[in-house]
Amino acid sequence: MSNPPVQPIDDIAIQALSDAGAICGDCGSEPGDRVCPDCERCRGWYVAALRAAGWAPGNEELTVEVNRLRAELAQERENYQAYRIGTEGAKAIAVRHITDLDRMLTDTIDDRDRAQEIADKLAYAVAPEEVIGEHSSMNCPWTNAFELITPKADVDKLRARVAELEGPAVEARAALAALCYDLEDPGSNALGALHLISRVTVGVEAPKDEAAQVLASREAQIMRRCGEFVRDTYDGEWADDAASTLERDADVRERGCPGYEKAYRGESEAEHRLANCANCGRPRASCTAP
Questions:
Q1: Is residue 131 part of a domain?
Q2: Angle, CA 179 vertex, CA 173 and CA 180 arms, to 5°
């Protein structure tokens, strides 16, 4: 059987048959391949048979179809190009958005770290680590510190109550100090109560009373008794030195430093105010009589 004639326009139809997988059956050609002569002959027969049966379009109609397909292919290429450009633009926008998100995340982490640092400072300002503990899965020092904080309303009430008690406490201190001052031996209970009242009224503005002088005299009395005990119980130079030191400290506590006036002579006001006492070694302002 001779080969059918192949016109130039039929070559397009043969290529379409090849793309569709039409082969002779004797070779291993893949769809689209045109390397087997027998396959070429078979495809030529297919085209000739279709034309003879009137199924295949004429050359003009086939040309129109080819042009239509080419136009569709060109449009698809344009669509793909537009899609690629749009995709690249969307990718650039996405990259910028991701960069912004990374920066915002970094800022958020920094803000969180600063907040944790400030919260730690506040918590450990309320109570030490021994009281509120450290951060762990079972402990939160922030919560512990919060539970220890007294609400402002309660603090205001406490301050108001303290202010109410300060006046009577100062009056009681002055009255008890005057009583102890007048008595030769007011007793340990009265002196102890005066000591406690003086401690709780430190810093309260009030007229000066005899409380500090009475307590200083009591401390000086105890020091002198200790000095007498050392002299009576022990012998030797060290005992005399210890007793003398106690007696001198008693005088300093009760009347102020005896070397104060002597050291003051011949010095300017600035030198007197800044220098320490040559006798007791304390600042001049603190070695005066109470």
A1: no
A2: 85
Query: 33 in a domain, yes or no?
Result: yes
| Element spanning 5, H or E | none
For residue 82, is it within any domain?
Answer: no
Question: Domain of 22?
Answer: 10-56
Q: Is residue 66 domain-resident? A: no
Instruction: Give every residue of the chain whose pLDDT is below 70, as ranges.
Output: 1-10, 53-63, 65-66, 255-290
Separation of alpha carbons 137 and 151, rounded Å: 27
- Write the DSSP string, 80-117: HHHHHHHHHHHHHHHHHHHHHHHHHHHHHHHHHHHHHH
| Pair 190, 211: CB distance under 8 Å | no
Beta-bridge partners for 276: 283
* pTM for this prediction: 0.38
Which H, E and C letters describe 22-61, residue by residue?
CCCCCCCCCCCCCCCHHHHHHHHHHHHHHHHHCCCCCHHH
User: Can you tell me the distance from the alpha carbon of 69 to that of 63, in angstroms, rounded to the nearest whole number?
Assistant: 10
In the chain, the number of structural domains is 2
**CB-side neighbour CA atoms (13 Å) of 130:** 0
Which DSSP category does 278 fall into? T
